[in-house]
Design a protein that fits this description.
heterodimer; A: about 160 residues; alpha+beta; Ubiquitin-like (UB roll); DNA polymerase, domain 1; 2 domains; 5-stranded mixed beta sheet; elongated; B: about 775 residues; Aldehyde Oxidoreductase, domain 3; Aldehyde Oxidoreductase, domain 4; 3 domains; 7-stranded mixed beta sheet; about 25% helix; 2Fe-2S-bd (chain A)
Chain lengths: ~160, ~775
């Protein structure tokens, strides 16, 4: 067991964890932050993406102990304190970028990381960046559209022939 | 002008806020005080005899609560099959037992052998490793035709063979079909494989069983599309728990696509073990576990023959299909290749004679059952591929050949037992040609060729049958359940409304779309209405969500219940207004005496119902709550035309989807935004089937595609933006909303469009390739082009 301390969504938290405790388990089980999801066991699906020190990380591939001292943001930390959704979250709702909602937290966190690095991506940039996030419901159409909209682009003409 | 509320409005989804902020409540988010965890020890061989299971060492491991094996389920029911098919000789299908944990034999990789319940998952997993298993491996059957050979190893020793049933439809047509094919001017024959798929909702299955000694009540939290069906099957057939002592809750569910319809061993186990251990028991599937325990989909091998006369009119269709059932019969498995497949074989065409033969086969593989479309994609794929091949053989335009044979008058009784109520296949094809810009294709092809690529265009039609019903008919066809649905509209004193619906939303947006309907009927704001679903203790009854049935069937029940509410509310209003009931109109949230300005607000009427001081108590009861059950009189028949444009790199065989367009007729549309999203998702799954996805077993029955590293899920850069249109609307004639259902269309209509397009691209390069089996991987395409 090792003691870990980290900042999660602006709040300092700590806990005793065994060496094999994954960050996603620490967040979901110990911190009860169940917005971060687990959709696979091979680090492919991206439902568990969180930000660790500002970078998008699959929290199923990082030990909790490796995150000792880190600054973590999860989906629960994206909206304002008064409940106002982050512009990316709002763009997902406005553009119907989610259906069952299971992959959504990872999609939003990946999108936030993309737009931080590349504030004005092309459609191809977005599709390429999402290679590590699988969605089974939306066919990606409205996810890509939502992310382009969140980047401030006019999406009203997409696929409207 | 687009509406901004009610039926037809693209209302934003209210459920999105919780999903987008991490506040969703999925089954794996549920943890009950004192819960234990179960780990299932699963077979790693496809077929074997269990000589012994020694759990004594494992039972002594730290944290172990109890270890269960098949012996603990002696005398407990097995997992039931919900549909009995009768074969072409009038005999019932062969129906094997399906124990919760393996008894005597294991029959597929992933078959659960033992279950370790422990304080933690880690301890359960560690203890499972200490179980000593003696399993004698037996030869496995994987290939369906081999499984039917004389002397093939039998999956179930107590059955006469691996043949579940040999079904003929319509058997009385067979001789006439044979004759028509013999005398045809032209017959196009195609042999094809409808590849085995895994549904792969992003949320793996989870079950949490809980038991209360205080009232002898069991609760199961589960990732289900139909909690009442699970309560019925598990309570009545497996564990023998009466309905009033069994609560089944399906909270937020992360996608289903069919595979969460069925009752699974893990659900029964957690419910059973929670009582035996007197502790909540939780199971969460890993993704690899999901690959070897979720029911798979498709897996048909088919030969189809299409006969045409000298004028290219379709005269007959004959098909022979081998349908894989896997090792056991999953809940609705027998119905998929039969009543959901054979009945759709007419498609959009006037073919007077049709005969469908289906041989359902047991193999040492995971059970196969409904996956998005369920039988209808298989019917559409073979039909639309054979029509395309016929056009090529005859040298005619494939769209013109389709148009020439379209059904044009409705209602239309097909030779495969169903009657289409409405449709307009010319209109959707016209619309498709417009939105897909077919006129611009040749220019785009030239541009592709200028860069060394081949470009192909594939078009097809589809017909679907949704909202499977009516109950008295499906009962005759072998269904062991009714297929109605139910809704309760509970109007509160303040005028807000809770609608308890039997449908379950796991991505479809019912919480937004259903209130749009009730709001429209009552003229009140959508935000006053809330949908309650997914909990057998909160809603009266329901058959759940599958087969694009929610709005057509459950939505109709909701309309009927709301009509009852209006009827009673009018009585109250007429009393308050001192007017005749017949003169009361409902509009804009008010009850008005027709032709006057006398009115009473919705809230005053609802308050009067619960504070009946001035109330016609001699005529009606206080309160305002109504329930309706709705059993449809027919299926609904959505239809449409799809177009795919691909670019093919002849050097590598790599196919890229350049454009994809869909023109659907869903009848009336309640929320166009949600409908379009459903089509998008279906198209991506169809493209996945056509180009990427394949569930593969080796000859020994080892599952080779058991993770996302081996099973190719469509990613964002595998698909384009789609053009989807639903402006052609021929409303359903027999349900009150005129809706048809849209959930499966995309997955049904898209695979043949993709394959037709790839064949067209290859042909444009001068190679006479007429068919490639899905998935059209670069390797398969390239190899076909070398022959």
């Amino acid at each position: 067991m090792a003691k870990v301390t980290m900042t999660v969504n602006g709040r300092k938290v700590s806990g005793e964890v065994p060496g094999n405790r994954l960050l996603v388990e620490f967040l979901r089980e110990d911190q009860r932050l169940t917005g971060t999801h687990v959709g696979c066991d091979t680090s492919q699906c991206g439902a568990c993406v969180v930000h660790v020190n500002g970078k998008a990380v699959k929290s199923c591939t990082m030990m909790a102990s490796e995150a000792d001292g880190a600054d973590i943001t999860t989906i629960e930390g994206m909206a304002e304190a008064d409940g106002t959704m982050h512009p990316i979250q709002q763009a997902f709702q406005d553009n119907h970028g989610l259906q069952c909602g299971f992959c959504t937290p990872g999609m939003v966190m990946s999108a936030a990381a993309l737009l931080k690095d590349n504030p004005n991506p092309t459609e191809a940039d977005v599709r390429h960046y999402l290679e590590g996030n699988i969605c089974r419901c939306t066919g990606y159409h409205n996810i890509v559209k939502a992310i382009l909209a969140a980047a401030g682009q006019d999406v009203s003409k997409i696929a409207a022939e | 002008m687009p509406k901004d509320s009610g039926i037809g409005a693209a209302s934003k989804r209210r459920e999105d806020v919780r999903f987008l902020t991490g506040a969703g409540n999925y089954t794996d988010d549920i943890n009950i005080y004192g819960q234990a965890y179960v780990y299932f020890l699963r077979s790693d061989v496809a077929h074997g005899k269990i000589n012994s299971i020694d759990t004594s060492a494992a039972a002594e491991m730290p944290g172990v609560v109890r270890i269960f094996t098949g012996a603990d389920f002696e005398g407990v029911g097995g997992l039931p099959c919900g549909w009995q098919v009768t074969d072409r000789h009038g005999q019932p299908m062969q129906e094997p037992a399906h124990p919760v944990l393996a008894q005597g034999k294991v029959r597929h990789v992933g078959d659960p052998i033992a279950a370790v319940v422990a304080d933690s998952l880690q301890e359960a997993r560690d203890a499972a490793e200490a179980i000593e298993l003696d399993i004698e491996e037996l030869p496995a059957v994987v290939n369906m035709k081999a499984a039917l050979q004389e002397g093939a190893p039998k999956v179930h020793d107590d059955l006469t063979s691996n043949l579940c049933y040999d079904w003929g439809f319509v058997e009385d047509n067979k001789a006439a079909v044979d004759e028509a094919i013999k005398n045809a001017a032209h017959v196009t024959t195609l042999e094809l494989v409808n590849n085995r798929l895994v549904a792969n909702p992003m949320e793996p299955r989870v079950a949490v069983g809980d038991y209360s000694r205080a009232n002898d009540e069991s609760t199961l939290y589960t990732t289900s599309q139909n909690p009442h069906v699970i309560r019925l099957l598990m309570g009545a057939f497996v564990l023998g728990i009466p309905e009033h002592k069994l609560r089944v809750v399906a909270p937020d569910v992360g996608g289903g696509f069919g595979t969460k319809i069925f009752h699974y061993a893990e659900e029964a186990f957690c419910t059973f073990a929670a009582k035996k251990c007197n502790r909540p028991v939780k199971w969460t599937a890993s993704r690899s576990e999901a690959f070897m325990s979720d029911a798979h989909g498709r897996d048909h091998v088919t030969k189809i023959e299409l006969a045409l006369d000298a004028d290219n009119n379709f005269t007959a269709i004959r098909t022979e299909t081998y349908a894989n059932m896997g090792a056991y019969l999953s809940t609705f498995a027998p119905s998929v290749p039969t009543w959901l497949h054979g009945t759709l074989m007419a498609g959009n065409y006037r073919t007077p004679l049709i005969y469908v033969n289906v041989k359902a086969v047991f193999t040492n593989t995971v059970p196969v059952d409904a996956y998005r479309g369920a039988g209808r994609p298989e019917a559409t794929y073979q039909l639309e591929r054979v029509v395309d091949k016929a056009a090529r053989e005859l040298g005619v335009d494939p769209i013109a050949l389709r148009r020439q044979n379209f059904i044009s008058e409705f209602p239309y009784a097909t030779p495969v037992a169903v009657e289409y109520d409405t449709g307009n296949y010319f209109a959707t094809m016209d619309k498709l040609e417009e939105v897909a810009d077919l006129a611009g294709f040749e220019a785009r092809r030239k541009a592709s060729e200028a860069s060394g690529k081949l470009r192909g265009l594939g078009v097809n039609c589809y017909i679907e049958a949704c909202g499977i019903a009516p109950s008295n008919l499906v009962g005759q066809l072998g269904a062991r359940a009714g297929l109605y649905d139910a809704a309760t509209v509970r109007v509160n004193a303040t005028g807000t409304i809770s609608v308890m619906v039997g449908a379950h939303s796991h991505g479809q947006g019912h919480e937004t779309a259903f209130p749009q309907v009730v709001a429209d009927m009552l003229g009140i704001d959508e935000s006053m209405i809330e949908i309650v679903h997914g909990d057998s203790s909160k809603i009266p009854f329901g058959m759940g969500t599958y087969g694009s049935r929610s709005l057509a069937v459950c939505g109709s029940a909701m309309v009927k219940a709301t009509e009852k509410i209006i009827k009673k509310a009018k009585k109250i209003a007429s009393h308050l207004l001192e007017a005749s009931e017949a003169d009361i109109e409902v509009k804009d949230g008010k009850f008005t005496v027709a032709g006057t300005d006398k009115s009473v607000a919705w809230g005053d009427v609802t308050l009067a119902a619960y504070v009946p001081h001035n109330y016609p108590l001699e005529d009606i009861e206080p309160g305002l709550e109504e329930t309706a059950f709705y059993d449809p009189s027919n299926f609904t028949y959505p239809s449409g035309a799809y177009c795919c444009e691909v670019e093919l790199d002849p050097d590598t065989g790599k196919v890229t989807i350049e454009r994809f367009a869909a023109a659907d007729d869903f009848g009336n549309v309640v929320n166009p935004m949600i409908v379009e999203g459903q089509v998008h998702g279906g198209i991506a799954q169809g493209i996945g089937q056509a180009l990427l996805e394949n569930c593969v077993y080796d000859d020994e029955g080892q599952l080779l595609s058991a993770s996302y590293m081996d099973y190719a899920m469509p990613r964002a850069d595998d698909v384009p933006f789609y053009v989807v249109d639903h402006s052609c609307q021929t409303p359903c004639t027999h349900n009150p909303l005129g809706v048809k259902g849209c959930g499966e269309a995309g997955a049904i209509g898209s695979p043949p469009a993709v394959v037709n397009a790839v064949i067209d691209a290859i042909q444009s390069g001068g190679k006479n390739v007429l068919h490639i089996d899905m998935p059209l991987s670069p390797q398969r395409v390239w190899a076909a082009m070398q022959d």
